[in-house]
Amino acid sequence: MCDFTVFRVFNPSGTAVNGSDTCRRFPVATAASPLQHTDTPKGFVLAVSSYVMWGFLPLYMKALSHIGPVEVVAHRVIWSVPVAGLLLVILGRTRDLRASLGNPKMLGMAALTAALISVNWAIYVWAISTGHALDAALGYYINPLFSIVLGAVLLREPLTRMQLFAVGLAALGVLVLVFEAGRLPWAALGLMVSWGFYAFFKRSLPIGPNQGFLLEVLILLIPAIVYVTWLGVQGTGHFGMLASDTVLLSCAGVVTAVPLLVYANGAKLVRLSTMGILQYIAPTMIFITAVAVFGEQIDRARMIAFPLIWAALVVYSIPMIRQARAQA
User: How far apart are CA 5 and CA 159, in angstroms?
Assistant: First the structure.
């Protein structure tokens, strides 16, 4: 056993990440639990590259904005299966997957996480395609703080004063948005809640991140194929109609799996505290893309709310990084 401090590392593509997926822990170094004490140049490049790829994902999804979110998600599921399957074959890690297919309890938990990740994907695609990319950035910014709340409420993990202050700042930012708009930022909150609970329940899956991801998309495969087939029969599907749409839809599996593979390799070669800071690259790029490329407006409420949330993330991150380095 080892002592640990929770540090949430999320990934805005909606795919599981290394270790216990979206919930990272900083263990005290032991012979059975080695830590990466330094940042290698290769690891840093790989880690940054993965988050940059996730940061550019809105541009890809925007090109599919004329296609319904559910259809996009269905193709993302369908085309992720061969990519993730090939990856496991290359890595030689198919044994765990075969064992999990015969475990009803694991299949039940995987079905729950698959449902949560499909909801997260659908909200993300909808937000990008309908001009709510800023809400997507907001959701992924506040997700680590929501994970802290989940840990405190569901796992009774104690909160420090700094963590409470950070959560309070983020909550204040959301309240500003609600007061100004007169409604909840549903897209941001939907992404936050679906991803937060996905990360929480993902911890119960005793299977590697790559195997777990393939198991989830396998569970979603039949519904996805049925839906895409139904669209084709109705004549409302986009696959096979235009070459550009067909290529974009069929590459959805690649844009899901490649950043995950790059991340998984980079995470082994840099410190966990470094990964904790790098995780904000993607939502920052989404924020910039929303404003500079998609032309979304930063109204008065967002001019107040986003700095509050950024300040909350700084308050949250600094003591966690210091503690991680001390433990290392």
Answer: 11
**Nearest of 263, 261, 247, 265 to residue 79 by alpha carbon:** 247
Helix (H) or strand (E) holding 107: helix 104-129
Contacts for 259 with CB less than 8 Å, ≥ 6 apart: 11, 13, 15, 50, 53, 54
Q: Distance (Å, rounded) from C-alpha 229 to C-alpha 226? A: 5
C-alpha–C-alpha distance, residues 126 and 122, integer Å: 6
Cα 84 to chain centroid, rounded: 17
Residue 5 β-bridge partners: 26
- Nearest-CA neighbor of 29 among 38, 37, 18? 37
For the whole prediction, is pTM greater than 0.70? Answer: yes
Low-confidence ranges of the chain (pLDDT < 70): 1-38, 264, 272-273, 276, 320, 323-328
The pLDDT score that the predictor gives to residue 64 is 92
How big, in percent rounded to 5, are the helix, strand and coil portions of the chain? Answer: 70, 5, 25
Largest separation between any pair of C-alpha atoms in the chain:
60
- C-alpha dihedral (220, 221, 226, 228), degrees to nearest 10: 100
Specify the residue for token string 């299949």: 107
Residue 136's Cβ-count burial label (10 Å; 0-12, 13-18, 19+) is: buried
Picking from 16, 7, 39, the residue whose alpha carbon sits closest to that of residue 259 is 16
* DSSP type of residue 185: -
